[in-house]
Design brief:
Blueprint (H helix, E strand, L loop, with lengths): L3 H9 L4 H10 L11 H14 L5 H13 L3 H13 L8 H12 L3 H18 L4 H6 L6 H9 L2 H5 L4 H11 L5 H15 L3 H11 L5 H7 L5 H8 L2
Length: 234
């Protein structure tokens, strides 16, 4: 049985003063952190994962939620490592677990990006029927939930997958006034453009009159200069 008190004592031994400064400068909002370099957290998470690999998934999910409840960034990153490492054991019922964690505990962009890029992204690749529920979350009043919907398709979109769903997420978030939401659906379009440049360009041109300039700039960032010029022209 994993002792979380012991785990947290071990984390304290990994604190790095320079990383504490980096965390403090990285976030605009107040966050809880130890101040541990990300590669160190990842290595630590993998080490502990080996120690609990014989535990059943229900128990590991309990450990994960307990770590998330602390609100420390590094403990959330451990959860991201563990859940992604267990991706071959995902079941459809895990979607409800993962989305409840997003609503309750994923409260800054570092946690959101790490958890959604990998855990949720891999889940929907395995169970694409859940894309419908993912897209519905763009209608949430919670900015983190809306952002999570976009971020979750970043890696599949980079592989050229789910283009119609990418466009539907962008449609749903198109005129959102939150600049963080604008940046991340714009980034989703940018990533999708790596495999589907013409389709994304056509989408941008069709919607640029309504699309906030923040989202537009992100969407066309990787495109050739001539396409960027056309998209930016008023």
């Amino acid at each position: 049985m994993l002792n979380l008190t012991t785990l947290r004592k071990q984390l304290h031994t990994l604190i790095d003063p320079e990383s504490q400064k980096t965390y403090a400068h990285f976030f605009k909002e107040p966050v809880k952190f130890y101040g541990i370099r990300t590669p160190v957290v990842q290595k630590f998470a993998k080490k502990i994962r080996q120690e609990i690999k014989h535990e059943d998934k229900k128990t590991i999910w309990w450990y994960c939620e307990s770590l998330l409840q602390s609100d420390y960034c590094e403990e959330a990153f451990i959860v991201c490592e563990w859940t992604y490492a267990m991706r071959k054991q995902y079941e459809e019922k895990d979607f409800a677990v993962f989305t409840s964690w997003i609503e309750k505990y994923i409260n800054n962009r570092a946690k959101c990006d790490t958890f959604c890029n990998h855990t949720i992204g891999d889940f929907v690749e395995q169970f694409p029927s859940y894309l419908t529920q993912l897209k519905q979350r763009t209608k949430s009043k919670n900015r983190r939930v809306k952002r999570a919907a976009a971020v979750s398709l970043i890696i599949p979109a980079r592989r050229g997958k789910f283009l119609p769903d990418v466009f539907q997420i962008a449609d749903n978030l198109l005129t959102d006034e939150d600049d963080m939401v604008q940046k991340w659906y714009g980034r989703l379009l940018k990533v999708a453009s790596q495999a589907h440049q013409q389709e994304v360009f056509d989408y941008v041109m069709k919607h640029k009159a309504k699309m906030p300039r923040t989202a537009l700039r992100y969407a066309i960032e990787k495109m050739p200069k001539e396409l960027k010029a056309q998209a930016m022209k008023k």
